[in-house]
Amino acid sequence: MNESALRDEICRVGRSLFDRGYVHATAGNISVRLDDGFLITPTDACLGHLDPERLARIDAHGQQSGGDRASKTLALHRRIYDADGQARCVIHTHSTHLVALTLQGVWSSNDILPPITPYYVMKVGHVPLIPYHRPGDAAVGDLVAQRIAAMAENGTPIRAVMLHRLGPNVWHRSPAEASAVLEELEETAKLWLLCNPKPAPLDDARIEALRQTFGAAW
Asked: In a 3-state reduction of DSSP, which class is residue 78?
């Protein structure tokens, strides 16, 4: 996509997430990587009412060259792009069920949710928990970059992390693909919280079949 189309796509995805309750008020942000910089939603912008011309444009050196003031999470987004060369879009939300999961207690610090559905395994994969830091704390970027590198070294690359009490950061090759990861992650958290008793995770044989058939990175 060219820059104009990417601006429109950011607004389309933002509106879609807002209309379906995945984001609310002015929480959340979306960025894309350009060949010579980045686009990111402005600080305190509602993702349901974005203007493509007012998206913040950042050059390759981190200086803003257009649009409204950039979201304070830009530094974290840039760390994700640096750590994963295939990432072209990053989405952060305060999705209700995922935040609730961190408040009640995640499955483990390395996997906030167990592999309870095949599409969670295939489309999302492992999602580690990042300990709480205040919004915008630069230390979070270091922790996320370290997790991305460690998981890639283990042969199980990730495309999402969960910030304790704040929400997920997900990334992929396009806004549409990143949005799909976010939605699958939030809906799996909802399923997990609704189930009582809790379901057993998929066993090793079933996960291996997903690896062999669909190339799942689990």
From this structure: helix
Calculate mean pLDDT across residues 69-81: 94
* Cα distance between residue 72 and residue 40, in whole Å: 10
Is a pLDDT exceeding 90 seen at residue 136?
A: no
Q: What percent of the chain has pLDDT over 90?
A: 95
For this structure, is 120 an active site residue? no
> How far is residue 175's CA from residue 12's CA, in Å, rounded to a whole number?
9
Kindly state the tokens that stand for 139.
């230390």
| Assigned CATH class of 3-214 | alpha beta
β-pairing verdict for 129-130 and 37-40: unpaired
Q: Phi first, then psi: give them for residue 126, nearest 5 degrees.
A: -65, 140
- Which entry of 22, 81, 119, 132 is annotated as an active-site residue? 119
* Cα distance between residue 36 and residue 65, in whole Å: 11
pTM above 0.90, yes or no: yes
